[in-house]
Amino acid sequence: MSREERIEMLKKEFSEINTYNRPTYCAECGAVMVFKGLGEYQCEKCGARDYDDYGKVRNYVEMHMGANAAQTAKATGVAQKSIRDMLKEGKLEIAQNSAIFLKCEICGATIRSGKYCPKCEMNYHHDLEEMARKARHHGDTFGYSTERRKGEDGSKRFTREQ
Ligand SMILES: [Zn+2]
Ligand SMILES: [Zn+2]
């Protein structure tokens, strides 16, 4: 895949990743949130951590083995539909002893969850972060919703209603 094709793919998928409420900017200081892997993000300036919907669901499912979609939705504030989509799309990890293997859509490496291997996913998020930095310099908030952040006190409170 050429660099141009990859950029096109990133643009096309940006709306998709936003449906999982990727934290683009820090709720504390407004700097760019850097992807740390598995739905976890850290502010490049103040170090505050945040999670996208996938990260919230993943953390919950890890601590509550066997939780169903309804319980997970209630505990994380993530819509049941999003959780079902994550399962369907393989974004939630399959069991370690499963014979089913997924392939990275970019390089074809064998993976246990998601669409991309950790290396390609890092590059993918790095490009999104670059786009966010550029948008920020132009005064365009690029998906950062002040509405959503209003009233949050920095603790993991999920105010998204659905
Ligand atoms: Zn920050
Ligand atoms: Zn890959």
Give a quick set of tags describing it.
mainly alpha, disordered C terminus, 3-stranded antiparallel beta sheet, binds zinc ion, 5 strands, two-stranded antiparallel ribbon, 162 residues
Layout of SSEs?
Layout: H1 3-18, E1 33-37, E2 40-43, E3 49-51, H2 53-63, H3 69-76, H4 80-88, E4 102-103, E5 110-111, H5 118-137, H6 146-149
Antiparallel strand pairs: 1-2, 2-3, 4-5
Helix pairs in contact: 2-3
This protein binds zinc ion (2 copies).
One zinc ion (ZN) binds next to α5.
Care to describe what's here?
By secondary structure, this protein is mainly α. It has one domain. It is built from six helices and five strands. Strands 1-2-3 form a three-stranded antiparallel β-sheet. A hairpin with a 6-residue loop joins strand 4 (102-103) and strand 5 (110-111). The longest helix has 20 residues, at 118-137. Residues 104, 106-107, 109, 116-117, 119-120 line the site of one zinc ion (ZN).
